[in-house]
UniProtKB/TrEMBL annotation:
<protein>
    <recommendedName>
        <fullName>Pilus assembly protein, PilO</fullName>
    </recommendedName>
</protein>
<feature type="coiled-coil region">
    <location>
        <begin position="42"/>
        <end position="69"/>
    </location>
</feature>
<feature type="compositionally biased region" description="Polar residues">
    <location>
        <begin position="389"/>
        <end position="405"/>
    </location>
</feature>
<keyword id="KW-0812">Transmembrane</keyword>
<feature type="compositionally biased region" description="Low complexity">
    <location>
        <begin position="139"/>
        <end position="155"/>
    </location>
</feature>
<keyword id="KW-0472">Membrane</keyword>
<feature type="transmembrane region" description="Helical">
    <location>
        <begin position="9"/>
        <end position="28"/>
    </location>
</feature>
<feature type="region of interest" description="Disordered">
    <location>
        <begin position="132"/>
        <end position="155"/>
    </location>
</feature>
<keyword id="KW-1133">Transmembrane helix</keyword>
<feature type="region of interest" description="Disordered">
    <location>
        <begin position="386"/>
        <end position="405"/>
    </location>
</feature>
<keyword id="KW-0175">Coiled coil</keyword>
């Protein structure tokens, strides 16, 4: 079949149109869509870059603003506690009472979380004319609306910012000057302790008695300016494991003696002395770090207690035994005693005492050390009464060194 030039020309045009149409729909349009996406991604990246540059340019100003705000907040919250630690609060109030020489008893309410209230002036009720009720009738509906709005806003306060609140009641007896000294110490303290109420009455010509109500507030801090307040330094264990048991405070003494030797495990034996008024025995003696408490002996003597500790050495092995007025260890009362291994080069013996509480505090210990070994016995006495010591040491045989701290 013959195709004329004109038909060839038309077929060429048709083929060209079909190729262009196919290229546009299947190649060009897809490339355009991809290009549009790339441009959009580029614009987003450029916008993000511009924002980053802007943020970087204002970073120093923002840092300065943060520092200013931090400083302002720290200054405004400086007088408040970061949180309420009841133990530390008791120690603080007790120090104020002791310094002022007041006689006082403390009562505490549980720590509460309360809503912060906006400070508003009290509305004073002024005398009004008897005709004013007629002028106010037209405003009744508006007043009702306002009251409902105020009630709503008041109830909303409970869901706003909160703080910790701790209330303390102090029943005191003392002179007026002592009371003033106590109040002044609260006013000059670096934390805000608010006196919310005070009642006083005369007890005698020179003394008054009364009640003080205190409130303390805790607000979380954004700095570590109160890190010292949050540190609890009293790690001793107090009280009895079994409250009315005859042995008195086995668990407490076990923990205390263990803690006494935790920091430096150089002591082989430990003794603890207490006043007769303590809930703890006046004397506890045992092997250091004895978790079983098998080696412990106890005495609760309000007078002088005589204690003998004997160390023996046989064939290079060390033995110990001790006795009080009513107890001895080992329980079989063997001639040589119980074998032990030294924690250091010499025998370490630590005694923890306490100051006497008055003229009636007469509990004390006469400690006799019999050293039949080639080792030295190093005795360290901690916290004993300086004027009238509770412990006196005598020795026989080898070297016995006594150090008072």
């Amino acid at each position: 079949m013959k195709i004329s030039k004109r038909e060839k020309y038309l077929l060429g045009i048709l083929a060209t149109v079909l190729i262009c149409f196919g290229y546009y729909n299947f190649i060009f349009s897809k490339q355009v869509d991809k290009l549009t996406e790339k441009r959009a991604a580029r614009d987003a990246i450029v916008a993000e870059y511009d924002q980053a540059i802007q943020d970087i340019s204002t970073l120093e100003k923002k840092k300065e603003k943060v520092e200013t705000l931090t400083s302002t907040i720290a200054e405004k919250t400086l007088m408040f506690y970061p949180t309420i630690m009841q133990e530390n609060t008791i120690l603080e109030i007790d120090k104020f009472i002791n310094d002022s020489e007041l006689k006082a008893n403390l009562a505490f309410n549980p720590i509460e979380v309360i809503a912060l209230e906006e400070l508003t002036a009290d509305n004073e009720i002024q005398p009004e004319s008897s005709l004013k009720q007629y002028t106010d009738q037209g405003a009744t509906s508006a007043t009702t609306e306002t009251s409902s709005v105020e009630a709503t806003s008041t109830s909303a306060v409970t869901t706003g910012p909160t703080c910790e609140n701790f209330k303390i009641a102090i029943n005191f007896t003392g002179s007026y000057d002592k009371l003033k000294k106590f109040i002044l110490s609260l006013e000059e303290y670096n934390k805000k302790i608010v006196i919310t109420a005070m009642t006083t009455s005369a007890k005698s010509e020179s003394e008054i008695t009364g009640t003080l109500n205190l409130e303390i507030f805790g607000i979380p801090k954004i700095t570590d300016q109160d890190s010292e307040y949050l540190t609890w330094t009293l790690d001793n264990v107090y009280g009895k494991e079994v409250l009315f048991s005859k042995g008195s405070a086995n668990g407490a003494f076990n923990s205390t003696i263990e803690e006494q030797n935790t920091e430096s495990n150089v002591n082989d034996f430990s003794m603890m002395l207490r006043s007769p008024t303590s809930e703890l025995p006046t004397l506890t003696l045992g092997k250091a770090n004895d978790t079983s408490r098998e080696t412990y002996v106890y005495e609760d003597n309000s007078k002088v207690e005589e204690v003998t500790v004997e160390f023996q050495e046989e064939n290079g092995e060390l033995y110990y035994k001790y006795n009080t007025s009513s107890s001895f260890y080992p329980s079989d009362n063997s001639s040589t005693g119980k074998k032990f291994t030294l924690n250091s080069t010499n025998i370490g013996f630590e005694i923890t005492s306490e100051a006497r509480l008055g003229d009636d505090d007469n509990s004390s210990v006469k400690l006799k050390i019999i050293n039949n070994t080639t080792k030295e016995v190093n005795i360290t006495v901690n916290d004993d009464d300086t004027a009238n010591p509770r412990v006196s040491v005598s020795s026989e045989g080898g070297t016995v060194n006594v150090t008072n701290k």
